[in-house]
Amino acid sequence: MENLKKAYVAGGCFWGMEDLFRVRPGVKDTEVGYLGGLNDNPTYRNHPNHAEGLEITYDANETSYSEILDYFFRIHDPSTVDRQGNDRGSSYRSALFIQDDEQRSDAMEMIRIVDESKRWPGKVVTTLEPFTKFWPAEDDHQDYLVTYPNGYTCHFERFGTFL
């Protein structure tokens, strides 16, 4: 029997993150959207202070939140403020949108592990923000790199596991 849970992450352009997470073991669904901003019903053209983020639905019997975090910290640079690749601005910040104390504890522990590994050029600047609402992005942003396989992405797996 499935034990479905959700994780909310942001680490730059949502297209690349979705494309990599969609095929991870235990991940049942992904959806790109907006998190942590100032307005209701954000759009690609109007999402002040929202991060381009990803809703990950996963089966906790097959993978864990810590494993989701481990992969998250391997596919984007968490040591850059408001930037991934050529993308700049708060929309592209590294952030985890926390739903409960267990997620907060797991996130803080993973950040400690990543920092101690010294694999990135600087300290982790990923913010831990309270999850409030996920706003799905427009249809043409969903599964973007499936539709446009040569589309832009700055995400790729950089190292083996931190765990």
From TrEMBL:
It catalyses: [thioredoxin]-disulfide + L-methionine + H2O = L-methionine (S)-S-oxide + [thioredoxin]-dithiol; L-methionyl-[protein] + [thioredoxin]-disulfide + H2O = L-methionyl-(S)-S-oxide-[protein] + [thioredoxin]-dithiol. It comes from the Bacteria. It is an enzyme of class 1 (oxidoreductase). Keywords: Oxidoreductase. One of its GO terms (molecular function) is L-methionine:thioredoxin-disulfide S-oxidoreductase activity. The active site is at C13. Pfam families: PMSR (PF01625). Residues 6-154 form the Peptide methionine sulphoxide reductase MsrA domain. Its EC number is 1.8.4.11. PANTHER family: PEPTIDE METHIONINE SULFOXIDE REDUCTASE, PEPTIDE METHIONINE SULFOXIDE REDUCTASE MSRA 2. Belongs to the MsrA Met sulfoxide reductase family. Has an important function as a repair enzyme for proteins that have been inactivated by oxidation. Catalyzes the reversible oxidation-reduction of methionine sulfoxide in proteins to methionine. This is Peptide methionine sulfoxide reductase MsrA. It comes from Flavobacterium macacae. The lineage of its organism: Bacteria, Pseudomonadati, Bacteroidota, Flavobacteriia, Flavobacteriales.
